[in-house]
Amino acid sequence: MHKNTNPAIALVESIAHTSVADCYQCGKCSAGCPQADKMDVLPSVLIRMVQNGDVKEAAATESTWLCVGCLTCSARCPKSVNIAGVLDALKQISIRKNCIDSKYRRTVTFQKAFLNNVRRNGRTNELEMVAEFKIAGFLNDFSIPLALKDAMFGPSMFFKGKLHLKPGSPVKDKALVKRIFDKCSKLTENENDAVE
After folding, report:
1. pLDDT digits (tens, 9 = 90+) for 113-128
2. What is the mean pLDDT of residues 55-73?
3. Which residues constitute the domain of residue 150?
4. Same domain assignment for residues 112 and 184
5. In a shared domain, residues 77 and 125
6. Among 6, 54, 57, 87, which one is most buried in terms of CB atoms within 10 A?
């Protein structure tokens, strides 16, 4: 993989571990994508946007969040460009630059609640995670219906043994989980603020 001189493109390539310059726009990724009919910008066009340095614009598309990570696009690429990795990199950049498509802000809120929960506990504590997600989601959009949306499922889940009110036993090596999070945090700190 060659070293890209454009810092925004280089950032995408370093996160995705691929070279977007290798793409010659055959369109096989878009043709095979199971989500293509719902996307505002096709995967091949997103790759072209990144090749042109329009990384922030590509990260702000709805398509970035519609990618389900099935890897069909990457598997079909005759040049072995990690297209799914590029879309994942665009998700990360959209979070850093706060240019997330508004429909997917709650998805990001849930992901953050999940990761915070695992970071604190070494595993998920369902009630704590749901509480953090619902409070953060409500503070973002003040939607009472969305805050209460899943409340009716609580009693039936509890009686079926699917909702545990008591936290599970702690993981044996919480320090290992902490080291994983510290290493990931260090990697993202080392990446420069390349996307403008």
Report:
1. 999 988 888 888 788 8
2. 93
3. 102-190
4. yes
5. no
6. 87
Identify whether residues 46 and 116 lie together within a single domain.
no
Residue 108 lies in a domain: yes
- Would you state the pLDDT for residue 121? 83
Cα–Cα distances in angstroms (integers) from residue 129 to residues 91, 116, 152, 167, in the given order:
22, 8, 17, 11
Angle at 188 between CA 68 and CA 186, to 5 degrees: 130
Tens digit of each residue's pLDDT (9 = 90 or more) over 123-176: 887 888 888 888 888 888 787 887 788 888 878 888 888 776 776 666 778 888
Same domain (yes/no): 71, 20: yes
Tell me if 154 is assigned to some domain: yes
Instruction: Work out the pLDDT band at 194, boundaries 50, 70, 90.
Output: low
Q: Same domain for 90 and 144?
A: no
Same domain, 92 and 70: yes
Residue 111, CA distances (Å) to 11, 17, 118, 178 in order:
22, 23, 11, 17
Alpha-helical regions (H) of the chain? 7-16, 28-32, 43-51, 55-59, 63-66, 72-76, 83-96, 105-121, 126-141, 144-148, 153-159, 174-190
Structure tokens at 33: 């994508």
Token digits for 191? Answer: 């990446």
